[in-house]
Amino acid sequence: MKAKIFLILPVLFYSVLLHAQQFIDKAVIEYEVKTNVKKTYPDDIWGEMMKDNLPTFKTGYFTFSFADNKSIYKFSHWEPNSKMPPYILKGDEENVWYFDFTNNKFNMQKDVYDNKFNVEDSIPVIEWRLTNENRVIAGFNCRKAVGKIMDSVYIFAFYTDEIAISGGPCSVNGLPGMILGLTIPRMYTSYMATKVSLSGVDVAAIKPVAVKKYYSSSSLKSTIKERIKDWFNSDDENSKVWMNMFLWNLYL
User: Fold this and answer.
1) How far, in Å, CA of 247 to CA of 220, rounded?
2) Is 152 helix (H, G, I), strand (E, B) or coil?
3) What are phi and psi of 222, to 5 degrees?
4) What is the Cα–Cα distance from 109 to 74, expressed in whole angstroms?
């Protein structure tokens, strides 16, 4: 009897180990995205007036669907009973991010005051520094990494190597696994995975928005800067804060 037990135990141990080492290559991840809207407005008369009429937080839910090393990230729904005015919500509802990691291809649709800009370019590169901090998110063991985007904006991510795609919310990518938690302090925004569903992946829907004209990342930046040059006073600090927040949200 003891001999049988000793034979069975290694088999069970190997089976558990093999299961633990299986990587997820197709799933739908839901994120809760929370932004402190009041902190995104400058501390001037206009900003204070806007803040007096807004809830503190904007909370929405987005989905990241992936299969065959391709992904699409887009809006799902707002927090129930949200009192945020529609003009603040509309842009998020129209934005879409598509990645083809095999071919290093990136597509993004961004809504800017009812104008849609579609970008097609190579996947943006982010420099990351891994740390030894760990936490569990949506049931997955995650490791912390620190990155920088748009030259000066630091981001803090928690990724898991149990999900075999190098993706994350919006255009954030480039870690050895999937980002399940992300905070961007200068944009007062956090992204946190709430669940990972292994079934119900609509593979056919993982594709870029089809349009006739695409901008490159650089041509989008030059086009937008030309269009908004009269919107802001470059000598006013509050105006600079507002412009930076606008551009960071656009390029993210």
Assistant:
1) 11
2) coil
3) -70, -40
4) 10
**Residue in the block written with tokens 């795609």:** 165
- For the chain, strand residue ranges (E) read 27-36, 57-67, 70-78, 96-100, 105-112, 115-122, 127-137, 140-149, 153-160, 178-184, 189-197
Structure tokens at 170: 């919006």
Measure the CA angle with vertex 102, ends 221 and 251; round to 5°: 15
Q: Write the single-letter amino acid at 33.
A: V
Phi, psi angle pair for 134, to nearest 5°: -135, 155
Distance CA 188, CA 71 (A): 25
Integer CA distances (angstroms), 183 to 16, 33, 154, 179, 180, in order = 34, 10, 9, 11, 10
Mean pLDDT, residues 208-236: 84
Q: Using an 8 Å Cβ cutoff, are 32 and 192 in contact?
A: yes
Q: Is 202 left (phi over 0), alpha (psi -120 to 50) or beta?
A: beta
113 SS3 class? coil
Q: How far is the CA of 157 from the CAs of 63, 83, 128, in angstroms?
A: 17, 29, 10
Q: What is the pLDDT of residue 214?
A: 95
Pairing verdict, β 153-160 and 57-67: unpaired
Range 49-55 contact pairs with CB under 8 angstroms and sequence separation of 24 or more: 54/84, 54/85, 54/88, 55/82, 55/83, 55/84
Structure tokens at 238: 């509050």
Q: Sort 88 into a burial class: Cβ within 10 Å, 0-12 / 13-18 / 19+.
A: middle
C-alpha to C-alpha distance for 202 and 219, rounded to whole angstroms: 32
- Does residue 3 surpass a pLDDT of 60? no
How much is the pLDDT for 66?
Answer: 98
